């Protein structure tokens, strides 16, 4: 069984800093953390390996070189291999270009299962897993809260999905892309004290644009299909505020609002 | 003429939001709106759409691999200019697939649309809603986005003579099957509720009436510290600095002043409706709708309205 986890490091939203004058995010003041749902995915993979020690786990991250120490920490947790897909040419990639790069790497690898988070804290599109699945023509489910972890080697999985007010249980045949949601019970352990400085760099590989056989205009800003033209913080005061009296008209306004937004069925 | 395709899942609020988004983009242009979805989830008879395309229900809504193939064929046949999906759990994993096969951009969770000449700019939250981004599509393919329900509203009421067609294609066997469906156990924690009916000093004497409104809105009841301290309700439903932090989509504040300590407990609330005898109470400056008047009378009138109309 070979499991590949797609992971991303994201700014910690707790220390969100914004330059209101220049209207930009102050990224270097923000600590990078493993996207919480991606941590669930790695934790689930480790739980499979615990049951079936022959399981091989690889984490794959597309991002800048400064994530290497964080990837090394995952290698100290019984992850077999870490791959960093990194190239200055990748800067500015939207989900179309990101998924293309990830899929290009994955199509050259053997795997039975690809695990991801449902969405990230920064981009928060939840596009990447579905798009990777499409490039690779694989089935995909997201918002997964539980995967049955015994008998995975049979090539058929049972899992539960959080579908707003319902929980659905599906059966699915591998290979597939599965996206976990943060409400799942899989938690990543801490690195053991004696492993803190363990040498792991021989299990970390860095891959660039050329290695993947991609040309520069297929990735980054040029390879993207969308462009962010501006970012701003939400205005604190509301311009669309409605003031009404507690009379027939006022009640109608509230009623129409509730109806329109689907609060009254 | 602009050709628009909407993917529907049988949810009325979603539909209105998608239609509202269309109106923003093509209001003054010649256009044709087509809705597509799995057979049972679509309207019947005359509708707000020019055309409805029914997909045979042998294809399951959760099989996004098969659905994507079908939608690709549909686009190859009709070349749509704009394709919209609901930002629902399944819409959010189906739309990205289609964007790949059509080699076009996709913007997720659009909350606002700005039309700037020929360019359509889409606004969406990022960084857990802390930041808004304004995005354009740079590809030649159709403009694609997912839209949350309740974000836009449709003004159109004119029913059209809808043309019905079915669209099926041979797809390979499914790799996914549904085994069972459970209703989620309903939680009594105010933090899990999408709608909160919250009462404060202004409704202290009639706090029980809040439950009637909560019942019809499928909501839970919460309170300010005034009400908790006076012993009318338990501390576990208190919102605020010394209570719980809540993120409902809708917060109806009845007779609550909105002290700093209370507001501290409101995070990422989409809409606040404040009912207060004093329209200058601090909570009113955060509200989308302010109703000036007695909160108990408000409950009564709104309940009447709902009962008559439903
Ligand atoms: C350390 C500390 C922690 C605190 N933590 C919290 C906390 O976690 N949560 C919390 O809520 N508070 C907290 N408080 C208390 C907070 O400061 C306020 O005292 C409290 O929130 C006031 O509650 P209220 O707005 O419901 O009541 P009031 O201040 O009495 O306001 C009542 C409101 O109702 C309106 N009103 C009156 N009659 C009517 C009517 N018939 N119809 C409609 N409107 C009417 C009034 O105009 C007014 O706006 C804390 C205070 C401290 C010092
Ligand atoms: N740059 C990346 N490298 C590896 N995995 C990624 C990357 N971006 C997104 N993912 C995966 O896709 C999921 C959803 O991300 P997003 O589409 O950005 O919301 C994440 O939880 C990751 O598992």
What layout of secondary structure does this protein have?
The complex is a heterodimer of chains A (265) and B (310).
Chain A lengths: L1 E5 L2 E3 L6 E2 L4 E2 L6 E3 L1 H16 L4 E7 L5 H8 L5 E5 L9 H12 L6 E5 L9 H9 L4 E8 L8 E8 L2 E8 L2 E5 L23 E4 L12 H4 L2 E7 L9 E4 L2 H13 L5
Parallel strand pairs in A: 1-6, 1-8, 6-7, 7-13, 8-12, 9-12
Antiparallel strand pairs in A: 2-5, 3-4, 9-10, 10-11
Chain B lengths: L1 E6 L4 H15 L4 E8 L12 E5 L8 H15 L3 E5 L4 H11 L4 E5 L1 E5 L2 E8 L4 E7 L5 E5 L15 E5 L8 E8 L11 E5 L9 H8 L3 E4 L1 H5 L20 E5 L5 H4 L7 E6 L12 E4 L2 H15 L1
Parallel strand pairs in B: 1-2, 1-4, 2-3, 3-10, 4-9, 5-9, 12-13, 12-14, 14-15, 15-16
Antiparallel strand pairs in B: 6-7, 7-8
Helix pairs in contact in B: 2-3, 4-7
Bound molecules: flavin-adenine dinucleotide and adenosine monophosphate (AMP).
Quick overview of this protein structure:
The complex is a heterodimer of chains A (265) and B (310). With 265 residues, chain A is of the alpha/beta class. Helices cover 23% and strands 29% of the residues of chain A.
By CATH reckoning, the class of the largest domain in chain B would read Alpha Beta
Structural domain tally of chain B: 2
Architecture per CATH nomenclature, i.e. the level-2 architecture of chain A = 3-Layer(aba) Sandwich
Structural domain count of chain A: 1
Which fold name fills CATH's third level, the topology of the largest domain in chain B?
Rossmann fold
The separation of the N and C termini of chain A measures 47 Å
Strand order of the largest sheet of chain A: 11-10-9-12-8-1-6-7-13
Shape of chain A: globular
Task: Tell me what you see in this structure.
The complex is a heterodimer of chains A (265) and B (310). Chain A has 265 residues and is an alpha/beta fold. Chain A has one domain (2-234): HUPs (Rossmann fold, 3-Layer(aba) Sandwich), CATH 3.40.50. Chain A has 6 helices and 15 strands. In chain A, the strands form 3 sheets. A 9-stranded mixed β-sheet of chain A has the order 11-10-9-12-8-1-6-7-13, with helices on both faces. In chain A, strands 2-5 form a two-stranded antiparallel sheet. Chain A has a two-stranded antiparallel ribbon with strand order 3-4. In chain A, strand 3 and strand 4 (24-25) form a beta hairpin. In chain A, 40% of the residues are buried. Chain B has 310 residues and is α/β, with parallel strands linked by helices. Helix content of chain B is 24%, strand content 29%. In chain B, helix 2 (64-78) packs across helix 3 (91-101) and helix 4 (209-216) packs parallel to helix 7 (295-309). The mean pLDDT of chain B is 92. Classes of the chains: A alpha/beta (265), B alpha/beta (310). At the A-B interface, helix 3, helix 4, strand 9, strand 10 and strand 11 of A face helix 1, helix 2, helix 3, strand 5 and strand 7 of B. Strand 15 of chain A pairs parallel with strand 16 of chain B. The structure holds flavin-adenine dinucleotide and adenosine monophosphate. Residues 6-8, 35, 37-38, 60-63, 95, 98, 102, 116-117, 119-120, 123-129 of chain A line the site of adenosine monophosphate.
